[in-house]
Design goal:
284 residues, alpha/beta, Rossmann fold, 8 helices, 42% helix, 20% strand
Amino acid sequence: MARPVTAGLDGSPESLAAADWAAHEAMLRDAPLRLVNAWPGPDQLDLTPGREAAWHYWAERALRSARAELDAAHPDMPILTDQIPGYPGPVLLAEAERAQLLVVGSRSLGAVAGFFMGSVGLELAAHATTPVVLVRADAPDTRDSDVVAGVDLRGTCDDVLEFAFDAAARRTAGLLCVYASRVPAIRGSAPWVVDVGLTDAREEAERTLADALAPWRDKFAEVRVVEEIASDSPARRLVEAARGAALLVVGRGPRRSGPGPRLGPVAQAVAHHAACPVAVVPQH
């Protein structure tokens, strides 16, 4: 059996949206869906036996209810559920090791729902060895739209491009590949000084982007690709480009030590502000 698409579920609207998105993704990948609830939560360490039993009951109920709805919507899809004791972060990081991708619910502006309260959702995106998709409950249904990929030309981006091309191909959708870089501040006061340099830099970026995309265009010849070079903040341009998109795909560099989310400024900004689901792909 193929590795599952795994969703963290706690019964919140955001986690239910994540489970629904994960079910659709599992269908596209012809993979089983796995719904996981981690308990007790970080703030529930001193539960009395009675309250712990109630917590366990409601968590099981959330899993059963979500599975029943998804079974009805996807009758031929294998759906697995599991309730695992432990902190959500470590539990779901371990689950990610066995999954094609991990899907969690999130709110805009960085607040994360239910048992992802605080920075847990961002920690998962920062540390998981498999791609993590952040899904908002209040986002419009754009699953039939095109895919957007943020491309960083300063290093390797093959993992991001492979994920983005594959996502577009599975959806029979187009793919917008965006490379954005800030214009030097001097342009505002002395544009004649930098016009030639900016033109050269843009031409070089166009060549580099075309070279990066070439092998993936060959492999996914059916995907309609649009290339965009933008003189703008990368995060701002990606958030704007992702309006109405089915998925925004961004990369994450090697895992770093230290406390707190370590996504990098662009990935963290789009995770906070993008209206569509955001896939954070580890780059090796």
